[in-house]
Design a protein that fits this description.
Elements lengths: L1 H5 L3 H14 L4 H14 L3 H13 L3 H14 L4 H25 L8
Helix pairs in contact: 2-3, 4-5, 4-6, 5-6
Length: about 110
Amino acid sequence: GDTLQRKGSPIQAITSYLSTLKIDSANRYTKFSLEKLRRELKIKLPDMHSLGEKYYNTRSYENACINFENILLIQPDDKKAIEYRRISKAKRDALEKLKNCSNNKESPCAL
């Protein structure tokens, strides 16, 4: 996690810290580093929410999902991000299903 953070990849660093904690949940250094990084990144949450909503409103649901998942890595209990991620995933999946159905002319499928 530290290396990723130094390289300017804070989201990947959080993911790395979380992976380490799954293996060794008592690792105090990793817990401290994760919480410190989350505190530092919280200032970016308003801009991240705005970007995620922009993706959602322009029907770029895959990007919206990724953006809201990143927010949840920083602040796991963010209710707005949880809800936007849920509806973005549902709409992304529905569009994918519609695309697959329309590509399959021989066998109609139920939506």
